[in-house]
Amino acid sequence: MKFPGLRKIKHYFPVSQPKPQLPSFEVRPELDTYIVGLDQTIVDVVASVSDDFLQRYDIQKGLSNLVEHAKANVIYQELVAKQAISDHFAGGTIGNTIHNYSVLADDKSVLLGVMSANIALGSPAYHYVCHTSSKVDMNHLQGVAGDIGRGITMITPDGERTFVIDPSDMDQLEPDYIPTDIIAAASAFVVSAYPLRASGQPIQQAMHKALEDAKAHQVPVVMSLGTRHLVEENREQIISTIKNYVNVLAMNELEAEALTGFSDPLKAAEAILDHTDMVLITAGPEGLYLCGHTDDSVKRESSNPIKSASLADFNLYEFSRPMLRQYCQQPLKVYSHIDPYLGGPERIKNTNGAGDGALSAILHDMAANHFHKQVQPLSGKHEMPYLAYSSFAQICKYANRVSYEILVQNAPRLSKGLPEREDSLEEAYWER
């Protein structure tokens, strides 16, 4: 796999060794390094409409409207007839995340969910496959007779965005289509909180089985929260899931407030770390926070300017590497923050997917650590059971850079990887 950042030669994986087997697009658990994601497969459609259009279909402006499949088809066909559709994007929080992971790592990932058994030109499934990296293994998807989900973003002349959600068959994923052997050998399992609101749908049971499989085989579980309203409506269920299964939690500042009651990201992170091992909070123009645990015996002080906010000197140990709290004899909470890359883009073209991009960078670093431990088990990089390859500060830089690339393009998915990022003086701590 491609490592995140520039590394000294003794820490490189052996890319020059001949490969005895032909390349395979399908994941081989015994040979490959990969992550697994479970998602409600959905395609995002962007269209320009009038206020009259919304009124005619009884769609509430500026809100997210759940629409039954037949009505959504009528709406979609009229948009096609009027040539009002500007773009189709493969969507889904986890679909975006694992696609971006595969682009960044130039390596495999596995998508679990549903897919139309018969894919027609121009159908949601067609656009989903077209806009997903070929390194995402979709061989374990469950075939369904109907369509995958469709989310239509309707933009009125005043710039207001209104959403029409057509679930179709995206929640019909059965537990039988969760491959335990694939999850057991993964570097991480990633899921969003969205399936938790699909009451009575098979995807809830499928998600539970996947979480149980990951927990049983000590595979780190990463969860993205979704939206503020989702957290508010399902708060107790989400907190229970976090306590029982989740190691890394990703959210924006609004979702963090809904979960903890704290509007300050640092205070929210401090509270969340009582229930999980690491947390990513994206805070728009304030940048992003990455917080977690390390053992007091291996803490490393930062040479960056020390910051104070609601927590004094909060980034003092940001050169430390993340660990699962259960492996820390003396757990220490570590906080790192970074301002937007280059102050943020001059013109933001798209905010959808920026948080997913940051999460994909974290997953890449976690997978790199998993791979390096397999090929260099005696390296000083693994003197402790670290969760990631890099320090909190370095991962922040990487996540920040990926978010920037999403913000300056129209789509939530990367089309190409990033140029190699620069490593700072902190690497002297970790080069043995």
TrEMBL record:
One Gene Ontology biological process: IMP salvage
Stored Gene3D superfamilies: 3.40.1190.20
Extent of the signal sequence: none
Residues where GMP binds: D39, Q40, T41, I42, V43, D44, G92, T93, I94, G95, N96, R197
The name this protein goes by in its record: Guanosine-inosine kinase
Role: Catalyzes the phosphorylation of guanosine and inosine to GMP and IMP, respectively.
Record gene name: gsk
PANTHER family attached to this UniProt entry: CARBOHYDRATE KINASE PFKB DOMAIN-CONTAINING PROTEIN (PTHR43320:SF3), SUGAR KINASE (PTHR43320)
